[in-house]
Amino acid sequence: MNAILITTMATALLNTDCPTLTLLARGKVRDIYEVPNHPEALLFVATDRVSAFDVIMKNGIPNKGKLLTALSLFFFNYLATAPETKHIPNHVITSKISEMPEEVQVYADQLDGRAIWVRRAQVLPVEAIVRGYITGSAWGEYQKSGTMHGITLPEGMKESTQFIPPLFTPSTKAEIGDKDENIHPDQVRDHLPDPALAEPLKSYALALYSTAAKHSLAHGLILADTKFEFGLLPPPASDPTAAPTLLLVDECLTPDSSRFWPAETWAEGNKMVGFDKQFLREWLKSGGGGFGKKGGGIEEDGVEIPEDIIKATWAKYDEAFELLTGKKFSASL
């Protein structure tokens, strides 16, 4: 077990406190700040909060936010330089506190390793999900209706069957406290400010998935599915009539947004155990901590996660990081 977690079990950062900055939003994991005199950018901070079934738990996993940030940055850089995806821009400006505004630097002790200074974009209200294998909610829908996000699938499919090629299966992007809604790919245009964005959004998502899946497989992992978020960057002041730029935002290919499976254990029909929050999900589904008293779903209250579930979940995140990046995780990265 990575000593980083064991020695700091009581120090999970659940909420940031940067009173001279403007807190715009607290998401399931990230706190988003506006910095005075810098309207063109935002500060994204990954806390150690943990959510499952759209519910934020009472306690967190120490250093989880730093690991997610480091892994996101690895993939943002990888995808920005890979031949198949280097044409797809992302929102990262810098992750170095010393390169951020002075107003941010004063909180270095709190933010170092978990903050990214990003271009301010209009986030599109669609989760760009790509599935390479059938599992999770998609498998559940298929068992009931033979469909996935409203797409009719062949009869007789087994759990964990591979899709060749991968499929674009979007959902709406819900506000905190609401639940995302799976939609048919043809419905994406109805949720965008410009319907013409639907095709490039799908194309970008599929290219990003395929490139990341190849990298993952080369390192012993299957990328079963993932979700991307996109935004629109306004045109520059020097050319206000130019079209806005579609770019990749939020996080990128972490165990919070992706299912990674060990390639050596995959087979059609297997119920795969991934490098994600599965230990936590199974504990909650069994009624752990009293979860489920309200019937499950977003109306549930978060519960206190026991130490053994925290350690088991961290171990999976930590192992995935090392396999995907080739480096051991360090909170000082």
TrEMBL record:
Domain of life: Eukaryota
Signal peptide: none
Keyword Cytoplasm among UniProt keywords: no
Domain (PI-PLC Y-box) ranges: 256-311
Annotated keywords: ATP-binding, Ligase, Nucleotide-binding, Purine biosynthesis
An example Gene Ontology biological process: intracellular signal transduction
Pfam families xrefs: SAICAR_synt
Annotated EC: 6.3.2.6
InterPro entries (UniProt xref): PLipase_C_Pinositol-sp_Y, SAICAR_synt/ADE2_N, SAICAR_synth, SAICAR_synthetase_CS
SUPFAM superfamilies hit by this protein: SAICAR synthase-like
Keyword Metal-binding: no
GO cellular component, one term: cytoplasm
Pathway: Purine metabolism; IMP biosynthesis via de novo pathway; 5-amino-1-(5-phospho-D-ribosyl)imidazole-4-carboxamide from 5-amino-1-(5-phospho-D-ribosyl)imidazole-4-carboxylate: step 1/2
UniProt GO molecular function: ATP binding; phosphatidylinositol-4,5-bisphosphate phospholipase C activity; phosphoribosylaminoimidazolesuccinocarboxamide synthase activity
NCBIfam families linked to this entry: PRK13961.1, purC
Family note: Belongs to the SAICAR synthetase family.
Protein name: Phosphoribosylaminoimidazole-succinocarboxamide synthase
Lineage, uppermost ranks: Eukaryota, Fungi, Dikarya, Basidiomycota, Pucciniomycotina
